[in-house]
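User: Predict the complex.
Assistant: Input components as received:
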Amino acid sequence: MGETVIRVENIAKQYRLGITGTGSLAHDLNRWWHTIRGNEDPYLRIGDVNDRTKSGTSDYVWALQDISFDVKRGEVLGIVGRNGAGKSTLLKILSRTTAPSRGKVKIRGRIASLLEVGTGFHPELSGRDNIFLNGSILGMTAREIRRKFDEIVDFAGVERYIDTPVKRYSSGMYVRLAFAVAAHLEPEILVVDEVLAVGDVEFQNKCLGKMREVSTREGRTVLFVSHNMAAVNTLCDKAILLKYGRLTTMGTATDIVSHYMNDLKQEVPLMYHAPESKSGAAIVFDKVFVSNANGTPVGEYALEEQVSINLEISNRSWNRDFSIGISINDTNERRVLIDQKLITCSADDKRIQCRISLPPALLTPNTYTIDLAIEKIGAEVMDFLKNAIKFEILKTNTKYEYLSYDYGLINKACSWEVQPHRV
Amino acid sequence: MKRLTLQENTVSALTDPPKREHWDLILEPKVAVFDLQLREVWRYRDLLWLFVRRDFVAQYRQTVLGFLWHVIQPLLTTLMFLLVFGRIANIPTDGVEPALLFYMAGITVWNYFSTCLTGTSTVFVTNAAIFGKVYFPRLVLPLSVALSNIIRFGIQFALLLGFMIYFAFNGHPIHISWSWLGIPLLVVLMAGLALGLGIIISAMTTKYRDLAVLMTFAIQLAMYATPVAYPLSFLKHRSYIWIININPMTSIVEAFRYILFGKGTFDLSALAYSLGFAIVSLIIGIVIFNKVEKTFMDTV
């Protein structure tokens, strides 16, 4: 591989929580007082690790801490992590929309970021004007844009509308035009956020294809942030994993993706018990677990084995009609199936037990997580559990054992009619 | 494939031969106080021009009169001043005849300054959406405000000239002299003043919006502290004239009318004061701007 084009050295970024008001003014004055006396910023020393689910003790959090890594020319680096792990903050620093609180980033070559398509599009301006405006915002010179103008219009397929204000465009046309401009950017380093999350499948594939082309054919460096593990896997050579604002692992994309997946799975328990904080709520899921045909809680199942999901609900309200919804998701956060059931109980029933049995031999080997919701009919959601529990379907001794990674969703055999011919 | 860990990475960084490293760009928390990165602004000059175009083209899109609005607005203001200050309050116009020209000249100059100042002072907040997504030299936007307003000034000035020519045929000849060359200098002076003050205000409003609230009516009030609707000579010997004199716009408005009509107060030392004021506010503006520029996205 070539020379290092990005070197990140001990980057840290601190944010202040809460609203801006007199309190923050007092902090600002204190900070200023410290700096003029030549002391270190007093608030840079404090701050919690950025776990947004737990309430912290400080008004300051570290969105990023001690991040260091190198990127070589022509590499495609994936940045992986859960929501709130600091991915976007890192991208913001790399794309220069904000500065780090500590540390340095050194960059060789022209860097352009694509955190959003269509930045700076003005609805009143025509497609033509917007191509120039957006292109220049992204760092192209007018000459470059003029040279590529026909190509951009062609790529977007909006030739007929090019002199119409973009507010008249269909949303599809708008996004296509915006992406067309971005796709014709020629920086040495490209920083891409989850642009791929918008648009239809065709458009997403187009984006992925373009990015692959940029990196392999033209040898440019790409930094790519995504929740789409399949995309990271196919697109990136290397990846880094962020967790609560720290860089935990760095390695090949395949390794990191499986690491990340394992992390996610490990955090989902086999059995769910309602936490103390919910003990006063009107209607809650008390206990959730997966069991086999005998009702024994088990985490792993053979392919043909019966899988049942058991719920215990406690009802402290006067309501008698509920709707329970269940969603089963695979490791890629792909929703496999959903189902719901209306239940009615009498006023004296304080506990409700439910047993939901999946159709036999339905799912392919994978690890599945379960989301659950309970709501008053036509009213608000009373309790919602995301990734409440997990279970795994094993591939040992099945036809899947020797197949590649993704088995699809449904475990059904097709009927084959094979007719060999001799001619 | 070999697994690359953090440690190995650091080791390779340490064992690399110690050559002189060249980096195109270093991002770090602190910046040089006066580094304006003008070279980068120059590289983005196309963008500057496109922003000017955007402001200009988009403003009166989908209006029937379109471009004419640039003319109608100052014209109506002038007529209103003529009625209120000229006819009702009977304030003299320093001997500028007809009075319409006196008011129109004042309004043309004041409009440039006030639109520049409001434009630059809200530039961070109104463009936060763009700033948050992509980097370009932040200075481009305030500069584009100053530039697009120069075009508006040009239009209003042309309107003023039109009226002067019209009145020239009706017995009020125009005095054209070399001093007219001073007009562009006055515009540059005002641009500097508006940019400096505007940037200071905009840098402060990113975190604390109090000033933005103040600004909207402060500019209206400031107009009355500037000899736009009355001549400076009208206030001679009044005890409160110092308020008007410390206003850096006073000498500019007066000088503008002096150049055009040969009447009014032309005071070089007052102009020097305005120049000094503009330079100081520009310097302060630049320093604050450089501090705020890099992190304002976190506080906006």
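Residues 1-18 of chain B have pLDDT under 50 and may be disordered.
Let me know if you want any component modeled separately.
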